[in-house]
Every structure is written in C-alpha cells, then in structure tokens.
Design a protein that fits this description.
By secondary structure, the protein is α+β, with helices and mostly antiparallel strands. It has two domains: 101 residues, no CATH class; 224 residues, Deoxyribonuclease I, Chain A. It contains eleven helices and twelve strands. A six-stranded mixed beta sheet has the order 3-4-2-1-12-11. A six-stranded mixed beta sheet has the order 5-6-7-8-10-9. α9 links the parallel β7 and β8. The protein is elongated and about 75 Å long. The protein starts with a helix and ends with a strand. Keywords: Endonuclease, Exonuclease, Hydrolase, Membrane, Nuclease, Transmembrane, Transmembrane helix. This is Endonuclease/exonuclease/phosphatase (EEP) superfamily protein YafD. One of its GO terms (molecular function) is endonuclease activity. InterPro entries: Endo/exonu/phosph_ase_sf, Endo/exonuclease/phosphatase.
Length: 334
C-alpha cells in the first residue's frame, strides 16, 4: 500500500497544479510585446506625437484602440499574466474616459434661432450634384460648405438648381481638391479669417435675418497621409482662427482631415469651440470613407463658438463622394 502511494505521488502533474502560467516564456514575451505596442498606441493622443503620417493614422484610430485594449485584457487574464492585465486595463480605462463622452449628449439645451448647416466633400467634383441639391431642399439648409469644389461641379450644381435655393455664394473653385466654397440662403460678406493655406479655406459673415450674424469658415486642410504632407496639414489646421474674443458667433464646417484625438484639432476645440457631433452624442459616427476601403473614422466636423450650439446632427450619404456629408441644426443664441 505504501509503495502504491509512492508511485502515485511520483507521477508528473500538470502546470496548473503547481501554479505555472500557461504557455511558458515565449507566450509571456509575445504578450509583453503586444502590451507595449498597445501602450504606445494608447499614449499617442496624450504625448501628441501625430507629426508624421503613420502616427497621424494611428491617432485617427484611437477609438479602435479601446476595443483592442479590451481584447488584450481578456487575453492576458486568460493567460494569467497579471502585470499585463494591469497595464492594459489602466490604458483602456484612460481611453474610455477620453472617447466615451463623444457618444453621450451634453446636458445643455440649445436655444436661439436655427441655422441649418450642411457640409459636403465633393471628392474632386465627382459628387452627385442633384443629390446635394435635393438634400439642401429637403433639409431646408441655410448654409452649405463645399470642399473639393471644382468648376465642373459648380456648373452641375447650378444646373440642378442650387443657386435658386441658396442664392448667395463665396466660391473659391479650383482643380482637384483645391477649391472650397460657401453657399447661403442669407446674404454673405466675404471675410479673411484664415490666412492663405494650401487648399482654399474661405470665410464669410452670414447676415442672419433674425438674431446675431454668424461668421462662417469652410474648412479643408491638406490631406496628411502623403509622404511629406503631415507638416503642411498641421500648419493648415493651426491657421484656423480661435473663437472670437468678442463672443461673435462663429461656425467652422468641413473636412478637417482630423479626428477629435489629433493634437491640432484638440487644441482648437480646447480654446472654446464645440463639436456638433460630440455635443449631441454622435461624435463617434464615422464620416470617411463612405465605402469600406479603410477603417471608418470621423474627420468631417462642424465646430461652433460664441453661443452657437448643436440641436441635432446626422451624417448623409452622397453618391460619388468618398465622404459622408454632415448635417446639423445649430441654434444661435441672441
């Protein structure tokens, strides 16, 4: 009997029975590498290293890092790598703290006269002009911001009847993506709120019939993903004006080529602008690409200051465009 007990005790036991972690050293090394990579990704919006195209792209994908972090926490927990769990959990919590408020509406109600704004990237002038005009009519748009505005699409919009609906215009049309314009139901007086940038970013004073007039900027900094365009993109974003010191109502609408995690846009909003999508809890709704050719991100925005707040917000499909248009009803406080 004693001999049998001795033989049983001598039999090999499983790793779990002696407290060893499953997978061994290689698994620990691989998981640690994944954790370090995730921590570097999660830190990008904090350390503000979106200075070249690869870090710009990774910063744009910050909301996806929340999902990656949750998966990493579950994997590290299953493998009983508790230090990895701790670091991944802390970073994921920090990301959630940053990203989640965009899906939660502000508790401040919008009051004042309505100003309906639509922003459309015309994709080198290939967007369907008739659809744009239909959206303007159906939604009773007051001010339209148009990016990548070519002479050809200006002609198409005119044939479709845009200028019968919105007769006032400040158009800086150009080839390819160079052109940008503002079209309005109300009279416009062209301003120079933005110094010369790579792509046109015109501005105008909208003579609203009831309430306070509104400064309006059509936004389109250069695309940052070219081999040498990230610096120009940053310069174009920095050129956008801060909120008016006098409290003059202002709206900036367009393709910012930036998400709410990019440094220059965060800095601009931090000076006193509100993002329409984030204000109503739709700040994670993607606007580009319109078709699944890359992970969808939110780079089209309507920003406001000077007592202008969003009442609603929606993204709209426009045939022929690689972006989804952005529509919002703003309220301009008296």
């Amino acid at each position: 009997m004693t001999r049998m007990a001795y033989e049983v005790a001598d039999e090999p036991v499983e790793d779990d029975e002696v407290g060893r972690k499953p997978g061994g050293g290689r698994t620990t090394a691989l998981l640690s590498l994944l954790t370090l990579s995730f921590l570097a990704w999660a830190a990008l919006p904090i350390v503000e290293l979106d200075v070249e195209r690869y870090t710009v792209a990774l910063t744009a994908l910050t909301p996806y890092a929340v999902v990656a972090g949750a998966v990493l926490v579950l994997l590290a927990t299953a493998l009983r790598r508790w230090l990895n769990v701790l670091f991944a959990l802390l970073a994921t919590a920090a990301l959630i703290y940053t990203v989640a408020p965009r899906a939660l509406p502000d508790q401040v109600s919008a009051e004042g006269e309505p100003l309906r704004v639509l922003s459309v990237n015309a994709y080198f002038g290939r967007a369907d002009a008739a659809t744009i005009v239909d959206e303007v009519r159906t939604r009773r748009v007051d001010v339209l911001s148009l990016q990548e505005l070519t002479p050809e699409i200006v002609a198409g919009l005119e044939r479709a009847g845009l200028f019968a609906e919105l007769p006032n215009r400040v158009l800086h049309a150009g080839p390819n993506a160079d052109g940008t314009g503002i079209v309005s139901r109300y009279p416009l007086r062209e301003l120079a709120l933005v110094p010369r940038t790579t792509l046109a970013q015109p501005s105008a004073l909208v003579d609203v019939p009831v309430g306070r007039d509104v400064e309006f900027v059509a936004v389109h900094p250069l695309y940052p993903m070219g081999a040498d365009t990230a610096g120009i993109w940053a310069h174009d974003l920095v050129a956008l004006p801060e909120p008016s010191p006098s409290g003059q109502p202002r709206v900036m609408a367009g393709d910012f080529n930036a998400t709410l995690d990019h440094t220059r846009l965060k800095d601009l909003i931090g000076r006193g602008y509100l993002d329409a999508g984030a204000s109503v809890g739709a700040g994670l709704t993607p606007t580009w690409p319109a078709r699944w050719t890359a992970p969808p991100v939110t780079i089209d925005h309507v920003l406001s200051s000077g007592g202008v707040r969003a009442e609603d917000y929606e993204v709209v499909d426009i045939p022929g465009s690689d972006h989804r248009a952005v529509f919002t009803t703003l309220r301009v406080a008296g």
